[in-house]
# Entry
Amino acid sequence: METAACWIERLPEELLAAVISLTSPPDACRVAAVSQAFLAAADSDAAWCRFLPRDLPRFVNAYERSFVALPSCKVRFLHLSDDPALLLGRVTRMWLDKATGGKCYMLSARALDISWGDAPNRWRWIHLDVLHDIKTGKRIASEAAQLLHVAWLEVRGKIESRMLSPNYVYGVYLVFQLDR
# Structure
């Protein structure tokens, strides 16, 4: 007597891929270990293209060209979850959450509205050539706003809600360093 797993393996790869695409990226990776049939379906573009958001923002040209040239949706997904992309305007980075496929963003200091940020007697913009990306650990060129003197600190950031993934919970973090 055949097991239920054998019956499932007889289903067309397209059907298995469609079912896998309704799960999550980690589930697709787990199910790939079940059998050759599941591996083929879990690695297919039919599954991974569903994990990639359809409304990706525009990347800087160099990143966009290399991203489009990647061989499969799975490789594109993994690349975008491991290597944040610099968006047009060069003040925002975007990557995908590996577990959910949700879009994540990081606004640079230049993208923020900082109280008195344009007053040279209160703030100084400094180049950070030793900054490491908080996600990948890679060195990135960036700027920071160095506080010289203010009576209060007010920082505002904006992101268009249409850039966010629907049905996801987002958090906001302010990364700063205190010097003595």
In short: The mean pLDDT is 83. The radius of gyration is 21 Å. Strands lie at 85-86, 92-96, 103-107, 113-114, 123-128, 142-147, 155-156.
